[in-house]
Design brief:
Elements lengths: L1 H10 L4 H5 L1 H10 L5 H14 L4 H12 L9 H6 L3 H16 L13 H8 L4 H10 L1 H13 L5 H10 L17 H8 L22
Helix pairs in contact: 1-3, 1-8, 3-4, 4-11, 10-11
């Protein structure tokens, strides 16, 4: 279904090619029977947001959201298994599912990356796509709540997926807003010192080491 392909594009890393396709994506969203008016309106607002300003700004906003921690990771199995062996086994099984359906994964993409999953679902029947989304509802809700807490327009995609799966959308007014403090991010991303231990005392005037 074209709708899943459009949602995949909206969640992918922004590119000039994607921005040029935004009018076509908007047309798919506007005519998709699976979307209720509220979901359609929010998704079209995201389309407008992605088309505003220069590409670098849109890219930076994407990285700030999705590449700074596990809470907003778009790799689904990371929410279930972290970096354990179970995640690797689950990805092998998912990759085999793609291959059996004739879906060849590019070398640079992991099979549990949500835009990849949606690209796959765009090639399947609606009943199968819904079943797969139902299996992922807990993870989709986790990511969606994190996006809602940051009042991000990207939350519209997760909300739409939950509704298509037969779930109720996340109630925005019941999710308190969260704004990550820059000093917290600075601490998490600070470069660790090359040498540990207590620094040697120095002379306060010359700065030379004190024996």
């Amino acid at each position: 279904m074209l709708l899943f392909k459009a949602l995949s594009a909206l969640l992918s890393y922004p590119s000039e090619e994607m921005r040029q396709a935004l009018p076509e994506i908007a047309d798919v969203i506007s005519t998709a029977p699976l979307l209720d008016p509220a979901r359609r309106e929010d998704l079209l607002a995201l389309v407008g947001e992605l088309g505003e300003g220069d590409l670098l700004t849109v890219e930076e906003r994407y990285v700030d959201l999705f590449d700074r921690g596990r809470a907003l990771s778009l790799h689904l199995f990371e929410h279930l298994h972290g970096e354990s062996r179970d995640r690797g086994e689950a990805m092998v099984e998912l990759k085999q599912l793609y291959e059996h359906a004739g879906f060849e994964l590019s070398a640079r993409e992991l099979p549990d990356y949500l835009p990849v999953v949606l690209e796959y679902l765009s090639c399947r029947k609606l009943a199968e796509a819904r079943d797969m989304l139902v299996d992922c509802t807990q993870i989709l809700t986790t990511i969606g709540r994190s996006l809602v807490a940051r009042r991000s327009g990207y939350a519209a995609v997760l909300q739409a997926l939950l509704v298509i799966a037969g779930e109720s959308p996340i109630e925005v007014d019941k999710v308190p807003p969260v704004k990550e403090r820059m000093e917290t991010l600075d601490r998490e991303w600070a470069e660790q010192p090359a040498f540990g231990g207590v620094p040697a005392p120095t002379d306060p005037v010359t700065g030379a080491p004190v024996a």
